[in-house]
Amino acid sequence: MTHVLYLAHDLADPAIRRRVMMLQAGGARVSLAGFTRGENALASVDGLAPVVLGETADGRFAQRITAVGKSCVALRGQMRGVGKPDVIIARNLEMLAVARRASSIFGRDIPVVYECLDIHRLLLHEGAAGKLVNAIQRYLASDAKLLITSSPAFVTHYFAPRSGLALPVLLQENKVLALQDTVQEKPTARPPKDGEPWKIGWFGALRCRKSLHILADFARRMDGKVEVVLRGRPAHSEFDDFEGFVAKSPFVSFHGAYKNPEDLQSIYQDVQFTWAIDFFEEGQNSSWLLPNRLYEGCLYGALPIAVTGTETARFLEKRSIGHVLQTADADSLQAFFTGLTEEGYLKSAENLAAVDRTQWMADQQDCLQLVQKLASLAAPKSGRALEASLSTA
Questions:
Q1: Are both 261 and 386 inside the same structural domain?
Q2: Which residues pair with residue 274 across a beta bridge?
Q3: Alpha-carbon 265 to chain mean position
Q4: In the chain, which end has fewer C-beta atoms inside a 10 angstrom radius, N or C?
Q5: Long-range contacts made by residues 278-284, C-beta under 8 angstroms, separation at least 24?
Q6: Are residues 141 and 288 in the same domain?
């Protein structure tokens, strides 16, 4: 059984929980270590108690560097109860530093995998700060054996031309983890009943202030004909007063966190549309990513809304699904929903339902393939050990 040490930047991130579950479903034994973020509750995985390396603060890069440095100093003691892994996965740049230290403790022959699902704005900075952070990344990843990322645009726009990393790439899209065959074969269209509003769902990591203001302005203009439903984890560092703003915004509501993947079907089937637009790092990471909510909404029949010029828009246009705005603002949304008919909605829902559901979900076989790929990185080490033992026999 392949033993994977997974190093997480935020133990409360639902995507960390999903990846751990994926590794376990693929047959790996997983040890989890990482940092907590403030008051965020841990995203628990049955049968797994993580090693807490310290606490970091969202949006405070310097503080995170300090926390990582302290952890690297204390890591030998923190890892005392963890057996030697076959593979180490470092989620995000700061965890590469921890992985490098861990490999010096457990053995330099352990392959390190760099998992990067967002490109931090500092990596794209044109000045001295950007050059420094990229140099640090190249140094920390110099012994890595594999790069895992979630969108081909990350490779096209950053990793290939700018990062200086010469690593093989494994694309792991942000698909819904479906370990039991409980997902309906074909999502059903659900137009609002007489007198009920259309609903747009914005679910997941809520970190985009611009999106919140656009959706609130639009909902106010529509005067009850459209409602905006928010669920997930707000990045409070990005908002002046998230809860207060929502409370003052008519036809906008926030319903808190949810469990991924267990609650996805119920929350997406409560809306007709998914907000798949992000301006958090506009023109860079936000334009290149393929977000979790894209796959989640499509799997459960919520039509995605994107904006032209982004990787999400190209993804939708290639498959002739969803709706792509020419401009992401309240005016464009108002024009679209004012002209929306039930017939038009049903046609769009039919087009979405016709897409093979494997486009949206990762099943048991996907989990097995991921773990097999990781195990293959450690295979040469086993081969060398066997060869050495035979030569001394």
A1: no
A2: 201, 304
A3: 18
A4: C
A5: 278/207, 278/208, 278/211, 279/208, 279/210, 279/211, 279/328, 280/207, 280/208, 280/238, 281/119, 281/121, 282/210, 284/119, 284/121, 284/124
A6: no
Give the range of the structural domain holding residue 276, as residue numbers without chain letter: 198-357
Rounded CA-CA distance 15/12 in Å is 9
Flag whether 34 is in a domain.
yes
Same domain, 166 and 204: no
Given a contact cutoff of 8 angstroms between Cβ atoms, the answer to whether 242 and 206 are in contact is yes
* pTM over 0.85, yes/no: yes
184 band by pLDDT with thresholds 50, 70 and 90: low
Structural contact between residues 125 and 93, judged by C-beta atoms closer than 8 angstroms: no
Peptide bond into 161 cis (omega under 30): no
Closest C-alpha among 303, 277, 308, 272 to residue 290: 277
**Pick the residue with more confidence: 84 or 235?**
84
Residues 101-110: pLDDT tens digits? 999 999 889 9
- The residues, any chain, with a CB within 8 Å of residue 63's CB and separated by 6 or more, are 56, 57
Is 28 in the same domain as 156? yes
Token pair belonging to 221: 């203009």
What is the token pair recorded at 389? 């033992």
Shared-domain flag, residues 238 and 146: no
Rounded to 5, what percent of the chain is helix, strand, coil? Answer: 45, 20, 35
**Residues 268-301 pLDDT 10s:** 999 999 999 999 777 788 999 999 999 999 999 9
Question: Does residue 262 share a domain with residue 351?
Answer: yes
347/377 same-domain check: no
Distance from chain centroid for Cα 256: 18
CATH number at residue 210: 3.40.50.2000
Q: What's the pLDDT tens digit per position in 318-376?
A: 999 999 999 999 999 999 999 999 999 999 999 999 999 999 999 999 999 999 999 99
Quote the CA–CA distance of 231 and 215 in Å, as a whole number: 14
